[in-house]
Amino acid sequence: MSTSALRAHAEHQYAEELAALAQADDRPRPPNWKLSPWAVATYLLGGDVGSLKITPKYIGQRRVIEIAIATLATDRALLLLGVPGTAKSWVSEHLSAAISGESTLLVQGTAGTSEESVRYGWNYALLLAKGPSMEALVPSPILRGMREGRIARVEELTRIPSDVQDSLLTILSEKALPVPELGEEVQAHKGFNVIATANDRDKGVNDLSSALKRRFNTVVLPLPDSMDEEVEIVRSRVESLGRALEIPAEVPALDQIRRLVTVFRELRGGVTADGKTKIKSPSGTLSAAEAISVLNQGLSLAAHFGDGSLRAADLAGGLLGAVVKDPVQDRVIWQEYLETVVKERDGWKDLYRACREIG
Predict the structure, then answer these.
(1) N or C: which end of the chain has fewer CB within 10 A?
(2) Rounded Cα–Cα distance for residues 28 and 261 (Å)
(3) Are both 214 and 250 inside the same structural domain?
């Protein structure tokens, strides 16, 4: 694989960890799984394998990941549900990499996703030359997963039109995909399953039919429980992304990360950290994913237009963009938060001045 890839797939980025786990893993593995459920959990949650330390890919409740893995070891598909930024796609990718050794069998859900993206299409040149045949059939990522006994992923399932969503029904219930044009069907090999992600906070959501909901086991990925947990999530991801993007800046100090996470948690929860002051919440979700984005943008500013050290002025622009999604309502909420909370907090005067200047 080329080392110049902007973002390596999980199975390439963490190939050493996956290989070490596979070598040390002596527990029972479901058919066609590269690792046992125990090793998959270790890969996701972190641990030690000999002298190698497995980095945690998900920081949160262990039981949530265990339930997700146990679901995939059955014939039930998995639906990862949660508000935007709760690492649904991240967990989906790493589960696929650990179980199947490949995370690229992906259908990206949008309002324009067609039934061919879920089932199959046709190579029209071959279709005209030779007529309908398996050779002329273009398999979707899900059909490839069925043939190869691998995990297929469907991102943003609720963004897909309802009639296209329901094309999954036969696949999930019968573990087979009819091809009426050929009078044949493709049956899923052992190891095949589907991981879908969804949230109900974005606009343009199409509710799942009750028939489709019944064919998924739903696991809700919550927002981080504690400040320390969210700080660690943001710190670890910023550090790894900084290395991947080769940003020539110092890793931000924990106090800068903690300050940003405090802002997000207070605005998200509608109350200050000490519980004394109620504040209004903006329209955005202000998740850990957005905090990571703000910090990476700040690091880039510090590296290319500063001295390499992250400062309040480097955070201010990204912070404003993350909070103010509605230019009228959210701006009022942000200005009120600056004046009543940030301005009065000890040690936050630099952040207050930087945000006022940028605003």
Answers:
(1) N
(2) 41
(3) no
